[in-house]
Amino acid sequence: MRRPAAALAALALAAAGTAACASDTEETPDGPRLAVSGAYVKEPPMSDMAAGYFTIANTGRDDDTLTGVTSDLAKHVTVHTTKPNGAMAEAGPLTVPAGGRLVLSTGGYHVMFIGLARKPVTGETVTMTLRFATSSPVTVQAPVRPASYRPAR
């Protein structure tokens, strides 16, 4: 009688293992899914501030919000926007729409590094940590590009 019981136990374990594997491989359809690309910092003409840019894609079903950016490059790191008259203003938290993108680019939203610890030069890399309302922080390595750099669109 031990063999049939052992066989039944083995079948039960196999079935449980199969069910567990099936649920482990399913992706949760909810929530944001963020990916950062195209990050760079322009080599600044001044020694006290610089600007950074990147794109955040959200392939998830829920929006998320970029709540802040930190970096050891500067005392203050904030997200700004460029107004139609060319003036800059600090921007509040920015939505990363579900199924969409948040683009930080010249002439629009961008990261400002104010009170630089050092002036970044072309060829170096700047580390930024992006913070979100829902998602875990994302650390980005942004190469420093010449002031004349314009990314391909």
**Overall pLDDT confidence:** 85
Shape from CA axes?
A: globular
- Terminal CA distance reads 72 Å
CATH fold-level name: Immunoglobulin-like
Rg, Å, rounded: 23 Å
CATH C-level label = Mainly Beta
What is the share of helical residues?
10-25%
CATH superfamily: PCu(A)C copper chaperone
CATH architecture: Sandwich
Low confidence ranges: 1-28
Walk me through what this model shows.
Strands 1, 2, 3, 4, 5, 6, 7, 8, 9 and 10 form a 10-stranded mixed beta sheet that branches. Strand 9 (125-132) and strand 10 (138-145) form a beta hairpin. By secondary structure, the chain is of the alpha+beta class. The termini are far apart. It has 1 helix and 10 strands, in the order H-E-E-E-E-E-E-E-E-E-E. It has one domain (34-144): Immunoglobulin-like (Sandwich). Residues 1-28 have low confidence and may be disordered.
Summarize the entry for a quick read:
The chain is α+β, with helices and mostly antiparallel strands.
What would the keywords be for this entry?
alpha+beta; 1 helix; Copper chaperone PCu(A)C; signal; 153 residues; Immunoglobulin-like; globular; 16% helix; 10-stranded mixed β-sheet
